[in-house]
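Predict both folds.
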Amino acid sequence: MSFKSQAPLKILIVKLSSLGDVVHAMPAVQDIRRALPEAQIDWVVERSFAPLALRCAGVRHVIPCELRRWRKAPFSAATRAEWRAFKTELQREAYDAVIDLQGLTKSALVAWLARLTPSGQRYALANQTDGSGYEAPTRWVADVAIAIAPHVHAVQRGRELCARALGYALPDSESFGLLAQVNSVQSAPETIAKKSASDRPCVALVHGTSRADKEWPVAHWLDLAARLDAAGFDVALLHGTDAEQQRSEAMAREMAHASVWPRLTLDALTDALAGCAGVIGVDSGLSHIAVALDLPHVQIYNFDTAWRTGPVNRPRQRNVFAQPAPSVDAVWQAWLAVSSAGGQT
């Protein structure tokens, strides 16, 4: 169905979590902006990721929810009150198109609750794609379920779903539209903005991930940091949990010119990362932010899954895969390549 004759369209994107998935949905929003520049785009997302969705160019309004927390105490008075408030905000607008980019029961519920215009429709995936979660209610709720080729990158899946739902040709180029304020006084404190007293460029190291089998050995991080130091870079160690913070602090004690950043909100972290010379990290949401910012970036994989989540055909980003883990030499050579590459065109 083509919406090009209808303007301004009101479109609701449903992509609730997780961090990497939220980042991967951003190029679809940019495609919509180019094809339908008058469209008004809203986004439903878990509250913890709302600061990032708010940084996505073209998003008019973000509707935060807390389904992860609410399901832990679904019948409590607080949960019921917050759920009612969420439904009120969700149904404040009527939408011409509600697009479920997640494909799970929880996203189907949100799409079903959203209010449509008289001619509005709900769109969703008709099938599971390789390596992604998928639950049948997403297509039961949809007015239009769209089948996508099973072997597809996460970014491409969302872009194709939106293009086919809204009736425009998929652009050849890909952009994330993630907005950052480099060296923002409010969101990047002076200790982070300059990264070091020596004023050397800083490379952020993302060692934390939600799965232990995705981690890179600590000894490899120490070796890599020594090479960066010899090349004139300071390093910053990031963390999102207490365990990651403890590992960051332990590694920093073994590194020269290393600092452990404080735990930041996602918008502040985005600003701080944007001021770095680059990022080297494992497969994690923070690494995907580096890709969205088009920073020089090496993404480390212990599993051959980069084809579906890692950067593809981007000269300033590169995946490195090996089992049981990539060598320091392989990661270092990849860093030399991306750090000398030009920006995206």
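Second protein follows, with its predicted structure tokens after the sequence.
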Amino acid sequence: MLSLVTKLGSHARRSTTATTTAALLGWAIGGCAHPAAVPRCAETPAPTARYVDADGNTLERYDDLWRQLARFYGATQPGAIAVHFAPGGPSRFDAAQATVTLSLGALRGRSLRPVLAHESSHLFLAALTGGASTLEGFRFVDEGVASLLEHQVAADEAVWKVQALGGTAERLRAAPFGLAELQRWSAFFGDGGERSDYGAYDVGASFVLFVRAEHGDARLVELLRAIGATRSLDAASRQALGRPLAELEAAWLAYLRRVDLGAAGPVHVLELRPANDEHGAPTDLREITVTFDADMAPSLCLSTPCQEGVCHDHARWKTPRTLAIGVDHPLLPHHAYRLALGWQSCRLKSLAGGELPLTEWRFETR
């Protein structure tokens, strides 16, 4: 998610860019000519080794991720990607060194493969654009495409799309923005530290989803390729989509304003599994779930007894209306569990902005 420096905090993902390395990226990531001489990398066959570890050993178990990314990006691909791990901090990528670093702390409770696909996407796009995608003005597109491919790998694209578009549409109605704000990515998103706005990833993704909806994947990739050739979003839009940027921006914002957020009434719980006040819940549950009566915003406000085997770190949206909390180990027998959906200063909300009242969830195991 983040180039050279920082990325991926909470709700997936994320990134700032060390732009001083931009001149290196066009040739360092895949044997391409310097971008001053050639505006984008030449198309090259896929390397024999796709992923390697820090010691250079091949990681064939991730080859299917590479193939999925290659189906989207086409023949222009980076050289072999070295996968490193760090105990904490954000996950990040370094296009100049063709490496991705995955944060074990940020991965807790999350699948490694979608995160690896996200970080790898940055290197594929840097290869396609000769490094232009790492520049400030194109970072929102870079993160938007990486988020899309991450969720395709996670097989939850439909759920994510509803949440990303709904959250962005709600944000637009609260405080209007346009492409000029997104192109100042370090201000719109932040520097990758604690105060960064990771919701900005969904805003970037909304632009990518709009281009796909209007023009399809092939033209989206041509837009990305044109960004590398022109280093101009307006020129790229005219070249790849036949539209000046002002027209494209207006159509994107209109697309967001058509997102149906529904009525902003209060949210209600339809079903809890195990049920509230249930006695004799199985100890071998792999997850517990709560289903609401509205499509929900992606943010999570949960109070859970992590030390007892049920933890918010393992929570995910299974569908737009169903929240699942994974259980890695058998639950304690004859034990009373207490969770809270929301707390005083943080409430679960629907995409329309309706709140779930503070809800206690109690059950007892066999």
